[in-house]
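User: Predict the structure for this protein chain, please.
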Amino acid sequence: MSKNIQTKSKVRKEICMIDKNEVYKMFFDDKLKQCEIAKTLGVSKQYIGQVLKAHPKASSEKERRSSENAKNRIEYQKNYQKKYKRKNTKDDCYEQMLAQLAKDTKELSYKDEISDYSFAKWNRGMYNYDKKSSDLVLKRNIVVSFDVPKRVRNVINPVKRRVIC
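Assistant: Here is the predicted structure, written as structure tokens:
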């Protein structure tokens, strides 16, 4: 135990022997960070912090560095926003949606009356699919006028065997 205490006291004496002026010179003149000074001198960052805390100009220097870093960070972000270009990935979904919209607009604008199939397609929530007859059948609880189709026949695509709308 006494050996550990002696070695600790030797380390403390070595640390105390470090010239504080050298630490001040590295911090104020060379503009090094506390961790860089500690690494160079082979001591802990906490010790360098304690040495600097004793200097009257240290706190103002830390504040100056902090504000300078904040300004640099803001400037960097501005430049980054100007220079950064997103990857130009082509999104086919949007073009498909536009094509579908154009097709539907054309389908609905040609005639004064729309077909039963078009009506069912645009109002799909009103209909149930009848698996036996492959028709769309109007739901029972919906009250509609006489011109709304009650049943839309053969809505299965024969090639894919899927409901078209």
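Strands lie at 127-130, 135-138, 151-152, 156-157, 162-163.
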